[in-house]
Amino acid sequence: MGALGLLTLVLGQYMGLFWSPPERMMGDVGRMLFTHVPAAWISLLAYTAAFFGALTYLFTSRRGADAFIVGCIEVGVLLNVLLLIEGSLFAKPTWGVWWTWDPRLTLSAVMLLTFVGVLTLRRAVSDPDTRASWTAIASIPAYMTIILTYYSVKWWKSLHQLQSSPETVDVSMTLVLRLNAVAYLLLAIWLIAERARVAYREAKAEMPPLPPVEKVT
Amino acid sequence: MSDFAQIIAIAKRELYLEIRNRGRWAGLFFFAFAVLLMVAFAAPSTSVLRANAGGVLWIGLLLASTRSLDQSYAVEMEDGALEGMVLWPVRPWSLYYGKALSNTLTLLAVAFALLPLVIGICDVSVRGSLSDVVLFTALGCAGLAAPGTLYGLITAKARGSSVLLPLLYFPLVVPVILSAARGTTLVFEGDPMGQSGSWLGLLWAFNALHWSLSGLLYGRIAEDA
């Protein structure tokens, strides 16, 4: 899965840099969108998966669900950092500033801080069951920031553009965007699976050993 | 005892504890006042302060709220009182709503004490209606107390709680600070373009969401604690 994701990413980035035409208004700067937008999409998806993982844990208390939440949040945070850096690199030539307190940008940074807080909470709790329970609980209100971030461009006057649709974007760009999104998705799935596997093994190692079985005579 | 009676009884208990320890309210007020002064010193001119008076008020209240929420569980952390609280014959959400109501009223008291000072220090004339100021203040304090009461319990038992509570809590209450600060500033200016309604809507939505969500989640944390 990881190898496939990497190959797709290489192809997608190559097409974004060399095959797709330059954007009409922004020129070659517009090529940044082929990596910035997929990073945004997949980070929101990872956080959404963490939200459903949290609900699963609260109803079933399965350690696998906790491991899944950890994987999703960590990958989501990684992609969140990437999207903020890429967005900043895109903003400088297009808006003339590295950063502005635009609703979408501000809420994206808030989204990152919220989930970093959830990860920090995990480090502060030593009991594994309590840690898993509180992570799930903290993830649920944290997810509300995702909804705010996604709709911020519609609800407030934002410098950031509104969500585009295939009807308004040329097919040569839509194809490259979707290819890069698939690449990011495959890599995210692989990273989440690997991280969840490690987290599950760590959780199992923390469990106390079973008491010895007494022979019944 | 009905759920409502339980909530009121718990809120009364919390408020009696607050009133018995008068130093706590005074401490909260002076802490918020000190923050206000620091912001005023950092501002380059009075006109900047005047244009951002709402923000000045809500920064002070936000920082005061972290102290208030920390201290609201300090009593329960002593001598296993938290376990005793969990064993009370009340529903978990009654515990939450009672505590959150008490935290809201505490913040409101600090807010109403700070308002005249903000108006004086920032040299603001309140051109809008006083009832709008009260509404924004009440909803803002409720918006801070709702998630804060939940996270206050989580961080009270965790290590490094002094850092953890702001880290978890501040990003979550950004919508409250944004809407309360902008709304309060607009009301001070008389809201000539009629924009305060949308900020009020955001505050109502935030409160509706977090007061219901946190009430549902509180019982699980209380059991684990």
Structure description:
The complex is a heterodimer of chains A (217) and B (225). Chain A is an all-alpha fold and 217 residues long. Chain A has one domain (2-16, 31-203). Chain A has six helices and no strands. In chain A, helix 1 (2-19) runs antiparallel to helix 6 and helix 2 (33-60) packs across helix 5. The N and C termini of chain A lie far apart (53 Å). Chain B has 225 residues and is mainly α. Chain B is built from eleven helices and no strands. Chain B has helices spanning 3-20, 22-42, 46-51, 53-72, 74-77, 81-86, 92-121, 130-157, 161-172, 174-189, 196-224. The longest helix of chain B has 30 residues, at 92-121. Classes of the chains: A mainly alpha (217), B mainly alpha (225).
Fraction of residues in β-strands of chain A: under 5%
- Determine the N-to-C terminus distance of chain B: 25 Å
- How many separate helices of chain A? 6
How many individual domains of chain B? 1
Q: Give the overall shape of chain B, derived from the CA principal axes.
A: globular
Number of strands of chain A: 0
- Roughly what is the average pLDDT of chain B, rounded to an integer? 87
Structural class of chain B: mainly alpha
Please render the helix and strand layout as text.
The complex is a heterodimer of chains A (217) and B (225).
Chain A (H helix, E strand, L loop, with lengths): L1 H18 L13 H28 L2 H33 L7 H21 L4 H28 L15 H36 L11
Helix pairs in contact in A: 1-6, 2-3, 2-5, 2-6, 3-4, 3-6, 4-5
Chain B lengths: L2 H18 L1 H21 L3 H6 L1 H20 L1 H4 L3 H6 L5 H30 L8 H28 L3 H12 L1 H16 L6 H29 L1
Helix pairs in contact in B: 1-7, 2-4, 2-7, 4-7, 4-8, 4-10, 7-8, 7-11, 8-9, 8-10, 8-11, 10-11
